[in-house]
Structure formats: structure tokens, C-alpha cells
Write a structure and sequence with these properties.
- This protein is mainly β.
- It is built from 1 helix and 6 strands.
- The protein is globular, with a radius of gyration of 12 Å.
- Strand 5 and strand 6 (52-58) form a beta hairpin.
């Protein structure tokens, strides 16, 4: 699990390498989404599929939904 802060944006990002797994779960201490304003989510994960954010959901739900994801 990752510790720190993860910022979500609407801009696509560039993968670090070509061998990027299909799904990655990022588990920061806090997730601060663009909407709703002033929201701070704790115990949430960001599921990234390819080059896009697929979901932001509670960690326990993310692990069940994406069991094969790299963490």
C-alpha cells in the first residue's frame, strides 16, 4: 500500500513503462477528488486501468473488486 497524497485530474497521464499491468490499486492515506469540492476521502483506493482512473472506492471494496490488481 502506498502512503501519501494522490491527486486526481481529468487529464490522462502517461504510463511509466510499456509493461504496465492492466489494473493498479493505489492506496494513499487520503484521496482528494475534484468533486465534490472540499472532500477528503480516507481509507479509499484509486483503481487505474491502463491510462485511466477506473474507480475511487473504499479499500476493502477495491480489493474485492480488483483481486488481481498490482498493489
Amino acid at each position: 500500500a502506498s502512503a501519501g497524497l494522490f491527486f486526481c485530474t481529468t487529464m490522462p497521464f502517461t504510463p511509466v513503462c510499456n509493461n504496465m499491468p492492466a489494473t493498479i490499486l493505489i492506496e494513499p492515506r487520503w484521496v482528494i477528488p475534484m468533486e465534490p469540492a472540499a472532500a477528503v476521502l480516507e481509507a479509499h483506493a484509486v483503481a487505474v486501468e491502463g491510462r485511466h482512473i477506473a474507480a475511487v472506492l473504499p479499500v476493502n471494496e477495491a480489493v474485492k473488486r480488483y483481486p488481481d490488481a498490482e498493489r
